[in-house]
Design goal:
Layout: H1 2-49, H2 51-89, H3 96-171, H4 176-365, E1 368-374, E2 391-393, E3 400-405, E4 408-413, E5 416-418, H5 424-437, E6 444-449, H6 456-460, H7 469-483, E7 488-500, E8 503-506, E9 515-516, E10 519-520, E11 528-529, E12 536-537, H8 541-557, H9 562-567, E13 570-581, E14 587-596, H10 610-634, H11 646-650, H12 652-655, E15 660-667, H13 674-689, H14 697-701, H15 707-712, H16 720-723, H17 732-744
Helix pairs in contact: 1-2, 1-3, 1-4, 2-3, 2-4, 3-4, 5-7, 10-13
The structure holds adenosine-5'-diphosphate and magnesium ion.
Magnesium ion is lined by residues 456-457, 566-567, 596.
């Protein structure tokens, strides 16, 4: 029984503890439900405060504002259109620019409003999303609250049942043991349920914590959204004020434009009135003028008609005038032409006359002239009696010189004698008339004749410091050609050749050793030419120097001893001058042949042999042939033996006809050379002494003595009278020489 009592007490205690626990649980649940309610209220409050209603309201407000703005924009656009129309009406308005600026500003504002609108739409979307999320949270909260209520309900039901059971147990103590057991069983179950409930409670508390967290986040988001919305609102307000300002400005502008327009209209009107008045006045004046002008118009009409008539007649008049002018001009031209023709005819006649006079002058002087030049005594002449000068001159006659030979004085008369002191310049002065005649189309030959060392090369070539005839002649030709350049075109060309052992060589050619032939022109003119002979065109002294240099180099390379070689060959410089008279079309060709002959000394007699003898024979023969030709020409023989040597054959054209020849006989004054000097002077005198005149049979018979014969024919001591035979006939001495030569058989060329 005591045991039962104890058991009952323990059960009661346990029951009390359970009741306490239940009470604590109940109070806990009450607190949780209170908290939940608070949370629900808070949620409600929050909902009312933010999302749902406020955001929507705000969105609606924004939409309304947007709509208002749109309306306003439309109105502005309408106004703008109106303004544009007015602008079109008033193109000259000064406010156009400002209006354009305003339009631009308006566009910018529109763009900004557009952007704000887009931003607003974004915000609206965000608010919508947040509202959705809030609704979800609410739904979840509602669910958990309902679950909680159900659990509470179930637990209270159970408590009630337990209390009822305890009460019934109290009422039935006999059954206590069983009941205690049942209670024990029941209390275990209750304990388990309590545990579950506790865990459930904990879970719910966690949920609540999470929800709070979410709420907090949402609150923050809401705050930021509110901030953004506030910003946007401020921006929109700013845009609104800007729009208002622009609108105001636009209105002002429009007002100003309106005023301007009105003013302009008024001004135009007043001006128009004034102008109208003036026009009226003018009209009145014009009317009166018209009345006075009518007679003037009548006279003008009359004038006009007469002018018209004149204009109509003008082409005829003009034609007439032109015809007469043309006739006059034609006549004048004809006159000028005839004058020109007359002048040309006179000029040609004068030209012919000049040529004739020149020819006559030359004829009077003689086509063949012989000069003598005595070189000074040089170092080469040595010292002593042999180097003493054997030549003396006549103080009154520059054509005479005396030679002391073997104690006898022999006098010679030439066309001109140059003493040793005569300069190159002086010599050339006597020669230049011949040179210039070459420009007029004459052929000229200048020969330097004499023994080696007598000064032939000095006279022809000279030195670079003191040039001889060759260079001076070309210089003179250049200057003459230049002075005639106004009317004439001239071309000057040169060839340089040498004749050695009767072989003609081109010293300007590529193959100087090649022997050239002299041929008849194939055109049947009878002219001679040398195929392959090089001709260089020259225009300046530099050109000539180059040509001489070239010829000299060729001559040097062709021989071992130049001095010797040059004394054994004839050196020829052939200058050709071709001219064209531009006014008459007349063409001339003149040739100037400058020949430095081989030494005339008599080598053959000094016992020379071999090639030296051969050279001497060639020289002898060619010089004799030259003498023969000159003699034949001067005595006008029918036959001139040009073909007897290469030299005469080559110069045939330049020796015959109107050609002019100058023989420059060079002599050495030295006593030791007196014999050679004598020979040279005899040669000169004979060339010169042949009298010009009709061709005679006698003259035809006379031939030129060879070099040896010249020496044999020593003059008597009678002097000048002997040296110059009487005119008209060959001298008696010449005839006797001829006879002597014929009988002795010495006339034949020296056999080679
Ligand atoms: P060639 O040609 O007849 O053999 P050169 O002309 O060679 O003779 O003359 C021989 C020398 O005499 C040269 O040294 C030359 O300078 C000199 N000589 C010739 N004539 C004169 C002169 N008139 N005045 C000065 N020196 C002269
Ligand atoms: Mg010489």
């Amino acid at each position: 029984m005591a045991h039962l009592q104890e058991e009952k007490l323990r059960l009661q205690e346990e029951l009390l503890a359970l009741q306490e626990k239940l009470a604590a649980r109940e109070s806990e649940e009450i607190a949780a439900s209170v908290q939940l309610r608070g949370q629900a209220q808070e949620i409600g409050r929050l909902r009312s405060e933010m999302g749902g209603t406020d955001a929507e309201k705000h969105r609606d407000l924004l939409a309304a504002e947007n709509e208002r703005l749109r309306q306003e924009m439309k109105a502005r656009e309408g106004e703008l259109r109106e303004l544009r129309r007015q602008q079109a009406a008033c193109r000259d308005c000064t406010h156009l620019q400002e209006s354009a600026g305003l339009q631009e500003r308006l566009c910018q504002l529109q763009r900004e409003a557009e952007e704000a609108r887009a931003k607003l739409a974004e915000l609206e979307l965000e608010v919508q999303q947040k509202t959705n999320r809030l609704a979800e949270v609410e739904l979840r909260l509602k669910d958990s609250l309902a679950e909680r209520a159900q659990e509470e309900e179930r637990l209270s039901r159970r408590l009630r049942d337990s209390q009822e059971t305890i009460a019934s147990l109290r009422a039935q103590p006999q059954q206590i043991k069983y009941v205690i057991k049942t209670v024990e069983v029941e209390s275990a179950k209750a304990k388990q349920a309590l545990c579950e409930s506790q865990s459930r409670n904990q879970y719910l508390q966690e949920q609540v914590g999470m929800q709070r967290q979410v709420l907090k986040e949402m609150e923050q988001q809401l705050q930021s959204s509110q901030k953004t919305a506030a910003q946007l609102r401020a921006q929109i307000a700013m845009y609104e004020t800007e729009l208002e300002r622009a609108h105001g400005q636009m209105l002002e502008e429009m007002q100003a434009m309106e005023d301007e327009k009105n003013r302009a209209i008024e001004e135009a009107f007043s001006r128009a009135q004034v102008e109208m008045k003036a026009v009226h006045e003018n009209l009145a004046g014009v009317r009166t003028n018209l009345l006075t002008l009518q007679p003037a118009l009548r006279t003008l009409t009359h004038d006009y008609n007469s002018l018209k008539r004149q204009v109509r007649d003008f082409p005829l008049l003009l034609q007439e005038t032109l015809r007469s002018a043309r006739a006059e001009i034609g006549q004048a031209i004809e006159e000028v032409n005839s004058t020109n023709r007359e002048l040309l005819r006179k000029y040609r006649r004068e030209l012919q006359l000049r040529k004739k006079c020149h020819n006559e002058l030359v004829r009077l002087k003689g086509n063949i002239r012989v000069f003598g030049r005595v070189r000074p005594i040089t170092k080469e002449d040595g010292e002593g009696p042999e180097a003493v000068s054997a030549v003396t001159f006549d103080a009154d006659d520059d054509a005479v010189l005396h030679l002391l030979h073997k104690g006898k004085q022999v006098s010679f008369e030439l066309d001109k004698v140059f003493p040793p002191q005569a300069s190159q310049e002086e010599v050339f002065q006597e020669v230049q008339a011949l040179v210039t005649s070459c420009i007029d189309g004459y052929n000229v030959c200048i020969f330097a004749y004499g023994q080696t060392g007598a000064g032939k090369t000095y006279t022809m070539e000279g030195t670079s410091a003191n040039p001889g005839i060759n260079q001076r002649a070309l210089q003179l030709l250049f200057s003459e050609v230049r002075s005639k350049a106004a009317d004439w075109d001239y071309a000057i060309s040169v060839s340089v050749a040498e004749i050695y052992n009767e072989a003609l060589r081109d010293l300007l050619g590529k193959e100087p050793q090649e022997k050239l032939e002299i041929k008849l022109c194939p055109d049947g003119s009878g002219q001679l030419y040398v195929p392959g002979l090089t001709e260089f065109s020259v225009q300046s002294v530099e050109d000539i120097n180059k040509v001489f240099e070239f010829g000299h180099v060729n001559r040097v390379t062709e021989c071992t001893n130049l001095n010797e070689h040059s004394s054994r060959s004839h050196a020829l410089l052939i200058v050709t001058v071709r001219g064209l008279d531009r006014s008459t079309g007349l063409r001339t060709t003149g040739k100037l042949n400058l020949v430095d002959l081989a030494g005339s000394e008599r080598v053959g007699r000094s016992g020379a042999e071999g090639s030296r003898l051969r050279e001497a024979q060639y020289i002898n023969r060619s010089l004799s042939a030259l003498g023969d030709v000159i003699y034949a020409l001067r005595s006008r023989q029918g036959h001139v033996p040009f073909r007897n040597s290469k030299l005469t054959y080559l110069l045939q054209d330049s020796l015959s006809g109107d050609s002019k020849t100058l023989m420059m006989v060079q002599v050495s004054p030295a006593e030791k050379n007196s014999s050679e000097t004598l020979c040279s002077l005899k040669f000169a005198e004979r060339v010169r002494s042949v009298e010009l005149g009709p061709v005679s049979r006698k003259a035809e018979l006379v031939s030129w003595p060879s070099q040896e014969q010249l020496e044999g024919d020593l003059p008597g001591s009678s002097g000048r009278g002997h040296a110059s035979p009487s005119p008209g006939l060959p001298s008696g001495r010449s005839t006797s020489i001829r006879r002597k030569l014929q009988t002795s058989g010495k006339l034949r060329p020296v056999p080679v």
